[in-house]
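U., I forgot to send this yesterday:
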Amino acid sequence: FVISTVQRACADSEEQSSLSRVALRPRQFHSHFLFLDEYNFGTMMMERRERNTLEDEYYIEEEVGDAVVVPFVVTAWSIMNYLGSETAKEYFKLIVGRFSREVLKKQIEIQNSDDQQAMMSVFCKELRDELLKFRQKMVTKHFASYLTRAVAEIVKDYYENNDASSGVANPVLDFIKSVMTVLELDHEVDAEVHVLKRSLLAQVGVAEYSSLAKWENPCPTFMLPDVFCGECRETRDVNLCYVPPALEEDGEQQI
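Result:
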């Protein structure tokens, strides 16, 4: 939008400007973006590959040629580093990844069905309504049962690996608050997330409006301003306390 606006302004002007020749070349395509802050976000990255190079990956058919689009879950949640338990981290990554992945798969399924050809656009109201119902069901049914088991397993893992007098904090409450904070980024399912949050807090004996149930960003901040990069020749502020999440073996989490 910005580039096209500049080009139109240059075209209407009598003076020739080098800005009229500016163009953008996309390098990556992303979808279903969840954004908390610059250190905490997740997305589905679309990568084009040849069909014959795939094994069991889920992919999206292209209209022409042998190339297909393979979606990957990109996990960039710094808050995951502060959950205090490997079990909690794994469950956090799985739940947040499914929240984007399953919705994308449902969207493709609807758009490819023979009787729903009118829903090809993401701006179609019928498609948005169908996806909203799917997300609501995902939270109230699938996530509710899955997270109930996850909370029980995190608590069990904590007591099996820590002595009661060790002073190590139980990570289950931070896990619940962090997962709910991410799900609350989708304001269309606020009511369903609120009910789920209340149920999970009750499972660990914490009242819904207790001060213990309030989420606070655990990521510390210590900014070093105006750091110059000799590679890209740019300057930016750097948070010295930022710890990026550990990468998967291939750098991304596959569907």
